[in-house]
């Protein structure tokens, strides 16, 4: 019997994670343009553009310079080229070719002078404010991401620090810096990384993103007006609820959703839960009660909901909300004070993530040591307590599904860091103990090792995803990014972009600008904002400039935009929550695995919803029927054309193969158990998970 390679076994494990022929609703994602970017280099003009997650596998492209086609034949591979004849004054467009037909949409770009685009923000709130975290969304429906900038004052505080702060402002800008609006959160929202969590998403599927956050009396919307809806209609906007130490421990608390295009208030509701007795959160001066996180989550499997979290050191609460275009609707409330949820007490991080960990089509909320199911019930907890860093993705390719890499702040007998199977909270391995492990990272930095590598501040060495030490050296542990064209993660630390060399790092690039959030040294944002699947990095100058960095290194890999991977897109929405963490993919991309699974999504924009699911074309064209499942004696295969099939057991061992036409009976000699069936024909291929009773 044949055995599968390690990488093929990984693919089988991935397929095991996806139920056979389970019909899940398609998630609504942003309809973006091709994100064409053109950069002048010493070799001409480097061009890069998006593939959509809904594009057919054979999508091709034409590039035009000043109206003249650049490429001699359609570009079918990676979506980047260098135009040797390009000039700084050239104007470019890209057109997709789908099923042999060039599409009419032509997305345009002018040429950047270098790989750094300086964006001037003309409406700096004051000389004491600087750009901090950035959220992204298509606010005006033009297919391009807009930037929502948190303007923090110089006297912003951590919750543990006393002192009055100046106001936080939220400013919206197009990618070229054109201002759209400015929200003033007011004096009753304290400024600091743990206080201001902003969610951005197209919650009502109208093709334009909204944004929501905690507000209070004295908040002004993007039109310059005080809030006036719901409980804000009767509050006192002149009141100052700050105490002598600068904390806000009294007064109304609101949650407001704003129009993304205008910044206007659309609805305001009471923030739930209210602070209540300050001391019940673990201290009496206001540190623990005002620890907030937030993330988008597809709780119904179709459209994004908003999840706002309050508390994690002790009491942990959440409020899940929908926006239907007219009103905010509470989906559920979670509170560790409730008996059924009590095991979540103290099991939160300085960050909150979101992913569909059990593959039921609905997202779960991952707080580090706990997981909240899509319906607001507690799914699991490790009991290891509060942590500083939380990473979610497919890190261990020997284990089906997603993992959580958790870096723990708890001392005593708790581990310093540990790997969790995300579906059920099972701890795959752990290391260290007794330390406040303040920082940790994961990424596929070493192509010689399967899966991702992991490391943290207080535990010596760099490890494989299964816990084997591979080096006594450790790289930086703040952020990661795709940059140089291979499938490995680069290391982003402040303005430094480094490459792991097997026993240390080599500098790839020193970026222009400053990082954010003190020693955390995080970018304003790092995400796949335009161009091909590699990521952009935005830094700032400490005043009123942003520096947008994009790669000009060629890649051979053709991948759809990372923003069409549902896990990655959700993690971008929560990247700026408290202790910023980088986004990861919901599938493994790295050594030996250079293909991305087709996402189950449709695109929303301009009031329409469209999608292409090329992966299912085989089912449609071949008329394939596979039944029954589970089966007892024979598995019935029927197709309108010739096909080949192979059946594997769960260890990746080939158990049976055959060739059929029209009708074929398979699996009669197999023992009871679960199997993978791979079917191919002239129309394509499909893989199924089947069970024999």
CATH topology of the domain at 6-24 and 614-692, what is it called? Answer: Immunoglobulin-like
Backbone shape: globular
- So, CATH architecture of the domain at 6-24 and 614-692? Sandwich
Radius of gyration: 25 Å
Mean pLDDT: 92
- The tally of strands reads 48
Structural class: mainly beta
Tally of separate helices = 3
Give the CA-CA distance, first to last residue.
Answer: 23 Å
The helical percent reads under 10%
Model regions low in confidence, pLDDT < 50 over at least 5 residues: 18-23, 612-621
Beta fraction = 35-45%
Largest sheet: 8 strands, mixed
CATH class categorisation of the domain at 6-24 and 614-692:
Mainly Beta
Task: Please tag this protein with its features.
mainly beta, Immunoglobulin-like, five-stranded antiparallel sheet, eight-stranded mixed sheet, 693 residues, 3 helices
Structure summarized in a few sentences:
The chain has 693 residues and is mainly β.
Q: How would you describe the overall organization of this protein?
A:
- The protein has 693 residues and is mainly β.
- Among the domains are: 6-24 and 614-692, Sandwich (Immunoglobulin-like); 31-114, Immunoglobulins (Immunoglobulin-like), CATH 2.60.40.
- 4% of the residues lie in helices and 38% in strands.
- The strands form eleven sheets. Strands 2, 3, 4, 5, 6, 7, 8 and 9 form an eight-stranded mixed beta sheet that branches. Strands 44, 45, 46, 47 and 48 form a five-stranded antiparallel beta sheet that branches. Strands 10-41-40-39 form a four-stranded antiparallel beta sheet, with no helix packed on it.
- Residues 18-23 and 612-621 have low confidence and may be disordered.
């Amino acid at each position: 019997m044949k055995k599968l390679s390690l990488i093929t076994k990984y693919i089988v494990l991935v397929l095991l994670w996806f139920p056979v022929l389970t019909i899940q609703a398609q998630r609504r994602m942003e309809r973006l343009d091709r994100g064409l970017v053109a950069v002048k280099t010493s070799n001409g003009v480097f061009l890069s553009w998006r593939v959509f997650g809904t594009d057919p596998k054979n999508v091709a492209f034409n590039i035009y310079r000043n109206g003249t086609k650049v490429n001699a034949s359609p570009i079918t591979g990676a979506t980047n080229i260098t135009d040797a004849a390009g000039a700084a004054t050239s104007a470019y467009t890209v057109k997709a070719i789908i099923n042999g037909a060039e599409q009419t949409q032509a997305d345009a770009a002018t040429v950047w002078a270098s790989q750094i685009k300086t964006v001037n923000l003309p409406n700096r709130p004051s000389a004491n404010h600087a750009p901090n975290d950035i959220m992204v969304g298509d606010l005006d429906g033009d297919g391009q991401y807009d930037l929502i900038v948190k303007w923090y004052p110089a006297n912003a505080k951590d919750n543990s620090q006393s002192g009055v702060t100046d106001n936080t402002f939220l400013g919206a800008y197009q990618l070229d810096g054109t201002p759209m609006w400015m929200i003033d959160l007011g004096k009753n929202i304290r400024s600091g990384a743990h206080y201001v969590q902003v969610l951005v998403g197209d919650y009502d599927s109208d093709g334009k993103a909204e944004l929501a956050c905690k507000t209070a009396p004295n908040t002004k919307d993007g039109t310059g007006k005080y809030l006036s809806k719901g409980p804000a209609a009767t509050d006192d906007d002149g009141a100052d609820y700050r105490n002598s130490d600068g904390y806000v421990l009294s007064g109304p608390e609101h949650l407001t959703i704003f129009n993304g295009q205008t910044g206007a208030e659309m609805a305001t509701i009471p923030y739930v839960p209210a602070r209540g007795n300050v001391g019940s959160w673990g201290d009496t001066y206001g540190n623990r009660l005002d620890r907030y996180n937030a993330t988008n989550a597809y709780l119904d499997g179709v459209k994004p909901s908003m999840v706002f979290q309050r508390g994690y050191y002790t009491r942990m609460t959440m409020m899940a909300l929908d926006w239907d275009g007219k009103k905010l609707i509470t989906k559920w409330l979670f509170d560790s004070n409730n008996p059924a949820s009590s095991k979540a007490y103290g099991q939160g991080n300085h960050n909150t993530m979101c992913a569909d960990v059990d593959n039921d089509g609905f997202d779960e909320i991952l707080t580090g040591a706990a997981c909240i199911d899509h319906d607001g019930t507690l799914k699991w907890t490790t009991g290891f307590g509060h942590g500083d860093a939380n990473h979610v993705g497919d890190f261990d390719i020997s284990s089906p599904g997603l993992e959580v890499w958790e870096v723990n702040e708890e001392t005593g007998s708790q581990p310093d860091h540990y790997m969790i199977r995300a579906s059920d909270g099972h701890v795959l391995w752990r290391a260290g103990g007794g330390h406040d492990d303040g920082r940790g990272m994961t990424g596929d930095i070493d192509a010689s090792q399967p899966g991702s590598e992991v490391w943290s501040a207080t535990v010596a060495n760099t490890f494989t995803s299964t816990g084997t030490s591979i080096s006594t050296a450790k790289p930086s542990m703040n952020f990661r990014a795709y940059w140089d064209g291979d499938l490995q993660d680069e290391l982003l630390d402040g303005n430094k972009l480094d490459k792991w060399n097997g026993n240390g790092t080599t500098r790839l690039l020193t970026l222009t600008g400053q990082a954010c959030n003190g020693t955390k040294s995080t970018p304003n944002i790092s995400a796949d904002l335009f161009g091909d699947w590699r990521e952009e990095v935005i830094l700032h100058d400490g005043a009123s400039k942003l520096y947008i960095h994009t790669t000009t290194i060629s890649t051979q890999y053709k991948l759809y935009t990372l923003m069409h991977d549902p896990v990655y897109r959700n993690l971008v929405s929560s990247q700026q929550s408290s202790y910023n963490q980088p986004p990861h993919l919901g599938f493994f991309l790295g050594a030996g695995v250079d293909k991305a699974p087709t996402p189950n999504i449709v695109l929303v924009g301009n009031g329409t919803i469209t999608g292409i699911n090329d992966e299912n074309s085989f089912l449609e064209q071949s008329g394939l029927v596979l039944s029954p499942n589970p089966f007892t004696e024979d598995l019935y295969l029927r197709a309108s054309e010739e096909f080949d099939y192979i059946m594997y057991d769960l260890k990746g061992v080939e158990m049976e193969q055959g060739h059929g036409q029209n009708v074929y009976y398979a699996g009669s000699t197999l023992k009871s158990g679960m199997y993978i069936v791979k079917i191919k024909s002239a129309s394509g291929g499909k893989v199924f998970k089947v069970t024999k009773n």
